[in-house]
DNA sequence: TCTGGGGTCCTGTGCCGC
DNA sequence: TCTGGCGGCACAGGACCC
C-alpha cells in the first residue's frame, strides 16, 4: 500500500498561463487579495528572488527591472481549474483526499501488480493534456514521506520525470538526510528553532530523536510525524470531513478608526458567514469576532482583541449573527486606534435540516423563509438586499488592478478562437 | 502611502466544582 | 467549614498548513 501526493506546479500562475500562453517562459507572479503580496510565482520569478508572500511594494524596482508580469488573483478561475484536475485524478484511484486547491493525497491499495511510476506518469500526462496544468507526484509508504517525495520530484524534474517513487530504505534515509527541518510537513519556524537547539540539522536527526523526548517535549503531533517519517503509516486519508468553521476576514485598504465604519464592515462579514452557513445547510453555535490594528506599524498604538460569542441557539440567520457581531464590536472598540483588519468566524457547526427547536430556543420562525428569499434575490440580482446598518451607497472594493478575465466561469469572458 | 484569506489543531491560563 | 489538588471547560493566542 502506498500514498501519493500530487501537487500542481505554481498553480495560480499555471492557470493564468493556460489561457494566456504569452506568459510562458516569462517571470509571472499572482498577488493575494487587495494586491498585497505574491502568493504564486513562476519558476522564472522564483529565480529572480521573489520570495513567497513578498509584499509587492518592496519589489517594485525588481519587477520593473526584469519586466515581471504581475496579476491579481482570480479565484473563480482557479477553483474551476482545480475541479477539473481533481476529476481527472479520481479516474486513477478511488481513494483521494483533496487537501487544498492545488494538492491531493491518493492511496494506492490493491495496486500490487501495477507499476506506480507508470501509473502516476500517465495521470500527470493526462492532466497536462486535458487542462494544461503541470503537476508533480511523490509516492511513498506514508503521507509525510509522500510530501517529501513530492518535493524531490518538483526540485529535480529532469532526473525524476516529475514523479518520484520512494520505495526503498536507502531512498528514505537519503531523502531524510537531504531535507532541512523546516521542509518537513508540520515543522515550521518555531519547532525548527527548538529542534536546532538540541542539535538537529536535518530531517534524519529529527527522526533519530528518542520518541520519549519528542512526546514529552513537543507533542503527540510531532510524534506522529516522526513515525510517519520512519515509514510507519500513522495518518490515513481524511474522509470528506465537513468543515468545522467558516470565516470571513479582511484587511482594509485604508485603516478604520471610526466605530460606525467598523460596524458597517463587520456587519458585512457576519452576513457573509450567515450566507456561507446557509449555502452548506449548517447552523452555528459560536461566533468569534476580532479586530486588529496594523502590526507592521510599530510607530502606532496597537490594539488586537477578539470575542467569543456563544449564541443563545444555533442559527444561520443573518439578523441574529449581525446583532451579536455588532454587540461584540461595541464592547471591543477603542477610540484612537487605526484598525487594519477584522473578521467573523462561526464555529461549532451543526446540520440545519434535522435541527429541532428546544424549549428555551426562540429563533423567530419568520427568519428562515425570509433568509431563503434574500439568498435567492441576491443570487439573481447580485447582492441587492442589505441590512439597515450596511452602507447602501459605498462600495468596499477589493483592490484588483491586474485581474485576468474569468475565462471559464463567466460567459462574457469565454475565450474567443480566431 | 502600500504586508492575504481560510482553515485545523494545540497550549497556557483562569475559573469552577468535586 | 476551610483548604489544596485536580479534571474539565472556556477562552485567547498562536503555530502551522495551503
CATH homology superfamily name of the largest domain: Reverse transcriptase/Diguanylate cyclase domain
Provide a count of the helices. 15
Which class of the largest domain in CATH terms?
A: Alpha Beta
> Globular, elongated, flat, extended or rod-shaped: what is the shape?
globular
Strand order of the largest sheet: 5-6-1-7-8
Summarize the amount of helix as a percent range: 25-40%
Q: What is the chains' assembly state?
A: single chain
Class derived from helix and strand content:
alpha+beta
How many β-strand stretches? 12
Radius of gyration: 24 Å
> From N to C, what is the helix and strand string?
EHEEHHEHEEHEHHEHHHHHEHEEHEH
Plain-language structure description:
This protein has 418 residues and is α+β, with helices and mostly antiparallel strands. It folds into 3 domains: 1-166 and 405-418, 2-Layer Sandwich (Alpha-Beta Plaits), CATH 3.30.70; 168-240, DNA polymerase, domain 1 (Orthogonal Bundle); 246-381, Dna Ligase, domain 1. The chain has helices at 11-19, 43-47, 60-65, 75-90, 116-131, 143-155, 157-160, 169-178, 189-197, 203-207, 211-217, 220-230, 259-279, 318-332, 367-381, and strands at residues 2-8, 28-31, 38-41, 69-71, 95-100, 103-108, 135-140, 163-165, 245-256, 282-293, 304-315, 339-351. The longest helix is centred in the middle third of the chain and has 21 residues, at 259-279. The model has no long low-confidence stretch (mean pLDDT 89). The structure holds a DNA duplex (18 and 18 nucleotides).
